[in-house]
Specification:
Elements (H helix, E strand, L loop, with lengths): L1 H15 L3 H16 L1 E3 L2 E5 L3 H8 L3 H13 L4 E3 L4 E4 L2 H8 L3
Antiparallel strand pairs: 1-2, 2-4, 3-4
């Protein structure tokens, strides 16, 4: 238990020095690993409001919006506002981006 907490703290410290896109990708991957469900369109997670994603990721709302738009343009994610779901279509690319910590 103690070792896991130390690893988490170490990871959080490394994330603070990372670029915003890497931080956001890491947050999305972590959410998908912990709470996501497999679907035909990749992993599904709850569509978290951008201001909440920005707060959790510790980046600005403007950066979060810009990065999410780019991820959507690249077809890495797809947001279903009707069902309040975010599909991580290209989950593996997000994992690769997140691993650049």
């Amino acid at each position: 238990m103690m070792v896991r907490r130390v690893r988490q703290i170490n990871l959080r410290l490394q994330m603070r020095l990372s670029q915003p896109a890497i931080k956001l990708a890491h947050t999305l991957v972590s959410l998908a690993d912990s709470y996501g469900q497999e679907s035909e369109q990749g992993k599904q997670i709850l569509n978290i409001p951008l201001n909440d994603l920005a707060a959790v990721t510790e980046i600005t709302l403007e950066e979060t919006t810009k990065i999410m738009e780019k991820l959507s343009e690249k077809a890495w994610i797809k947001i279903d506002t009707v069902n309040n779901i975010m599909n991580l279509i290209n989950y593996q690319q997000l994992v690769v981006l997140a691993s650049k910590l």
